[in-house]
Amino acid sequence: MKILVTGGSGFIGSALIRYLVSETTAEVVNVDKLTYASTQGSVASVAASPRYHFEQVDICDAAEVARVFAQHKPAGVIHLAAESHVDRSIDAPGEFVQTNVVGTFVLLQQALGYVQAGGAPAEFRFHHVSTDEVFGSLGLDGPAFTETNPYDPSSPYSASKAAADHFVRAWHRTFGLPVVLSNCSNNYGPYQFPEKLIPLMIIKAAAREPLPVYGRGENVRDWLHVNDHARALWRIFSRGVLGESYNIGGNSERSNLQVVERVCQLVDERLGGGPPRRDLITYVKDRPGHDLRYAIDATKVDRELGWTPQETFDSGLEQTVDWYLENREWWQPILDAKYAGNRLGLGKS
Question: Which residues belong to the active site?
């Protein structure tokens, strides 16, 4: 089985590719534009495999996407390519509409043409990977998101992903494209671009720099280790019911402040020296439109497909802290050339 993975040099895509090459017999085609958040080093451990192929292609380029389908003749697509940072979506929403909405439309059209032309294997399917943010914000004491929650996006990022989700369902219902969808909670783990909360806090805590926390740090997220997400994606792609969506979560709700305090504790244990790093926490102006809480009810994917996370938040976070402390050669060039740890997403005044 040959699978196209879009965005395969990004954080979640590279974790999926490492899993597919290492743990399955699938052949993988990594389709990635190589934007600022993509790094070839994220797939270096499997790049020499004869079952790994790379295509530097923008998913908005219909001709190139059509060429990839015709050349590789995949048995499926797992679509992860996306702009994904909420703060950047506040500063430059047009880029999110282009990649997340237009790019998904182009992929759907080319996949449909591939299927209708008769070149696709009978088992072909299109797995669209989305986010829990499309459902909007929960109260602190309310139930978690299920697959039937209405969409209520708050940010340009979540609005663009919600639009893409709707396009995927429409191409299934109108044109018969075989699709499955998944919506996942916040991911963390190795190779995550250091603009995101956990890697940024680890790097800044190690350097004893101020640790900026939005508002009062009360916003709650459900955290899932990226390797558990990769396992879930393969389970949904290979066993999910066509036309269905599946929520993926880690059963690990934490406030942002709790996450940062735990990172400080773990870095203190490993590096020591000086006062506790939690003293570096600095409360800063909150993100515009900041959703209070996300939480995932993953009952369906457990009941129907037998997937549950293998990592707890504590075990996964310890591994993640160790990875960033031991792999400066991966993230330091990013800080030097792409992102210096500065605040994003304040919007235009």
Answer: 132-133, 157
Copy the structure tokens of residue 55.
């295509």
Instruction: For residue range 320-331, list pLDDT tens digits in order.
Output: 999 999 999 999
Reported as a single tens digit per residue, the pLDDT across 208-255 is: 999 999 999 999 999 999 999 999 999 999 999 999 999 999 999 999
**340 or 30: whose pLDDT is higher?**
30
Q: What are phi and psi of 56, to 5 degrees?
A: -80, 100
Give mean pLDDT, residues 169-192.
Answer: 98
